[in-house]
Specification:
202 residues, mainly alpha
């Protein structure tokens, strides 16, 4: 199966697209809502901007964080007194701006964890289906030579899937800050998450 780097990126949920579209949408929406601020109230304005933050956060963690920051600054600039300034004179507005950032951070983290859990579940499901196919062959009375090719193909497919997850060389290196370029093979989290390694009896 193609890795995340080779998949076509034409969806609104694509991380790289949302990283640019999310902040832009938050800024434009905050500006457009200036004319409706008095009629719908600043609370509803904030809720509408939060929707943009949530959509961006569900697509990608970085997009959610950046969109939340831009949304908070845009709300502050357009909808808090003094208007068209980054100064805030009301305590309630400070709370609203802070909540915009917090919501973006929280939703981004929850969505990232959910995506990780889904990927892990998919990987385990692939292994279980391969085991089921081998069991069906064995129950059908297949000989060892007849079972060899399907089992080999399943193992090669699973290992290629794991290997594709190792393509992650774009992370920045913060030399001197305790974080360095390192590579953890994708097979390691898979192995240590197996139930036989997570019990007190092994």
């Amino acid at each position: 199966p193609p890795s995340a780097r080779t998949r076509p990126k034409n969806s609104l949920t694509d991380p790289s697209l949302m990283l640019g579209l999310g902040p832009l949408a938050a800024f434009l929406l905050a500006g457009v809502l200036v004319s409706s601020r008095d009629s719908i109230g600043t609370t509803n304005v904030a809720l509408l901007i939060v929707l943009v933050v949530v959509v961006a956060a569900t697509a990608d963690r970085a997009a959610g964080v950046v969109t939340a920051l831009v949304a908070a600054l845009s709300y502050n600039f357009f909808h808090t007194e003094p208007y068209q300034s980054l100064r805030i004179s009301d305590g309630g507005d400070i709370l609203t701006v802070s909540l915009l950032i917090v919501i973006g951070l929280v939703v981004s983290e929850i969505s990232a964890r959910a995506r990780t859990a889904i990927k892990a579940s998919t990987r385990h499901g692939d292994a279980e289906r391969a085991l089921e196919r081998s069991t069906e062959l064995l129950d059908g009375g297949a000989s060892v030579p007849e079972m060899w090719d399907p089992i080999r193909d399943d193992l090669i497919r699973l290992m290629r899937t794991r290997a594709a997850q190792n393509l992650d060389g774009d992370r920045p290196s913060f030399l001197g800050a305790g974080a360095y370029h390192r590579s953890v093979p994708s097979i390691v989290p898979y192995l240590v998450s197996r139930s036989e390694f997570m019990t007190a009896y092994t």
